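Supplementary Methods. Inverse-folding protocol.

Structures were first reduced to a discrete structure-token string of length 564. This string, shown here, constituted the complete conditioning input.
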């Protein structure tokens, strides 16, 4: 296997990152250690009376904002809750259902060969002059294909560049930058959106700031589409103007020296007329799924439009009601839509090329995809209990309230706050590679804190995605880093870990600069991040007890959202 290849140790800052990261425990145990620390901190905070004023709840007796007190996780109630509610804590973890449903379909599309054939077909058809942008674009779109983007497209890009007389390492760099550096960029939502927004919804629910808020996996659709078209010319420019000139001309021919190495799987097992026929059938299946969803939206009396959502009790239409309110069921159905889309296209392709001969093959592929999710289930178990216990202790909301107040006191405009969050996430990414693990750690504090500052949960998620993507390609702790090194060593045997990091560093710097500028500018202009997903957020009004006037609004509301 590729992961067996030993990479040389680096020196300097990147060497320190590698050594420090390698000393960190597995993310599952990071969560368990954090739970132990959380228990200790909750006891200390409960004994010392740490508290904060609740942003939206009012005390019935005084009419003033409720006081949030820190609660010890060693209290009898919390100890009982931990053991009694353990199955519910795990199974009610929002990301779990979202991810497993989408992956049931994506597993079929991957194992049938549909993802691999689609990417191979797209890049092989590229004109020589447009080879770099086509490889980069297909790589970014390939994050829907999970592992296939790494194990199929990246080695294929090296072969195609060599066949075109260009340096194959430049092709590997462009594909790696697209797949991993542009990890969050895409023209449509997918399984990553389901994963991240599931964690975001869990964080909002745990904070109790807005019980009515629900996740919409299309909540970053506009933004990630813009990321795609911003990152594409950056990867093109860096590849053709910085990386390839440094590599020099390629004179080694069109085939790698170790082309038969088991560590470099064939880009696609199906070529020629059979693969083309399979892709056509998959395309027809995709159109049928899209038509089905369109019918459920536009036909009279369909289930994916809540027509009553904008109708008052007297039968008149509410003047301030958005079409997005009526489309709420459609947005909520997108997880199921991607499951059906991937399942149908994978099945259609597999039936033609022979990877799916009967219904048992289909079921086996779905079962195999669930086996691959075994580690994620273990990680989700640990993360679910960390998030839940953070909520039980009240420390998450207390930290968010005091953090929002501290940021507000600095006078920093919100776009600057977002930019700092991107940089912090990018730095943390050097040490904790898993996107879900990092967001599960950060979201319980950052999401409610930014909500108090007037930034929507969708906005917090978008900012996290920018920082998480840009530095993927320079950390040796990224799970596919050794595999990319093996792909590169097929063409240049003395190519080391330091060489790979140095080659990818310009991409990381430029993607981080332009990604940060994009998110800051997006917030400054107030452009929606997706359908019914504004960048700003207004806290719900405090509900005063009967016979009392509502108290004045807490800080971090409209004035903070519009600092000028």
């Amino acid at each position: 296997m590729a992961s067996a290849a030993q990479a040389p140790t680096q020196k300097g800052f990147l060497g320190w990152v590698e050594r420090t990261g390698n000393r960190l425990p597995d993310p599952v145990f990071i969560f368990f250690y954090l739970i132990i620390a959380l228990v200790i901190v909750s006891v200390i905070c409960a004994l010392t009376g740490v508290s904060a004023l609740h942003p939206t709840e009012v005390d019935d007796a005084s009419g003033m904002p409720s006081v949030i007190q820190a609660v010890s996780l060693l209290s009898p109630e919390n100890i009982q809750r931990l053991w009694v509610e353990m199955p519910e804590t795990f199974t009610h973890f929002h990301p779990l259902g979202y991810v497993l449903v989408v992956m049931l379909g994506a597993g079929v599309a991957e194992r049938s060969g549909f993802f691999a054939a689609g990417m191979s077909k797209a890049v092989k058809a590229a004109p020589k002059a447009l080879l770099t942008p086509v490889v980069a674009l297909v790589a970014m779109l390939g994050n829907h294909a999970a592992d296939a983007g790494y194990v199929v497209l990246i080695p294929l890009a090296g072969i195609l560049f060599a066949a075109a007389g260009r340096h194959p390492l430049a092709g590997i760099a462009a594909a790696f930058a697209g797949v991993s550096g542009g990890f969050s960029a895409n023209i449509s939502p997918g399984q990553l959106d389901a994963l991240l927004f599931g964690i975001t919804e869990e964080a909002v629910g745990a904070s109790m700031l807005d019980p009515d808020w629900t996740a919409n996996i299309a909540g970053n659709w506009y933004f990630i589409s813009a990321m795609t078209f911003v990152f594409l010319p950056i990867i093109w420019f860096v590849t053709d103007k910085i990386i390839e000139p440094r590599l020099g001309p390629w004179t080694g021919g069109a085939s790698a020296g170790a082309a038969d190495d088991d560590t470099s799987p064939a880009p696609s097992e199906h070529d020629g007329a059979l693969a083309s026929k399979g892709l056509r059938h998959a395309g027809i299946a995709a159109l049928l799924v899209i038509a089905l969803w369109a019918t459920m939206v536009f036909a009279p009396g369909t289930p994916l439009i809540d027509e009553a959502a904008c109708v008052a009790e007297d039968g008149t239409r509410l003047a301030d009601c958005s079409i997005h309110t009526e489309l709420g069921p459609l947005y909520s159905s997108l997880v199921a839509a991607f499951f059906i889309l991937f399942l149908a296209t994978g099945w259609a392709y597999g039936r033609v090329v022979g990877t799916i001969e009967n219904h048992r093959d289909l079921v086996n592929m779905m079962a195999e995809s669930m086996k691959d999710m075994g580690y994620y289930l273990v990680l989700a178990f640990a993360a679910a209990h960390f998030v839940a216990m953070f909520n039980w202790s009240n420390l998450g909301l207390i930290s968010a309230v005091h953090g929002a107040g501290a940021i507000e006191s600095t006078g920093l405009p919100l776009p600057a706050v977002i930019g700092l969050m991107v940089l912090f996430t990018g730095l943390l990414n050097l040490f904790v590679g898993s996107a879900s693990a990092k967001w599960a750690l950060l979201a319980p504090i950052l999401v409610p804190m930014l909500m108090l500052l007037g930034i929507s949960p969708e906005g917090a998620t978008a900012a996290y995605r920018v920082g998480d993507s840009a530095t993927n390609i320079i950390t040796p702790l990224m799970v596919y880093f050794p595999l990319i090194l093996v792909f590169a060593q097929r063409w240049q045997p003395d190519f080391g870990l330091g060489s790979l990091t140095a080659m990818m560093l310009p991409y990381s710097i430029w993607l981080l600069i332009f990604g940060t500028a994009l998110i800051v500018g997006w917030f400054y202009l107030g452009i929606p991040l997706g359908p019914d997903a504004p960048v700003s957020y207004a806290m719900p009004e405090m509900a005063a007890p009967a016979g009392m006037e509502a108290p004045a609004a807490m800080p971090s509301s409209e004035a903070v959202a519009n600092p000028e």
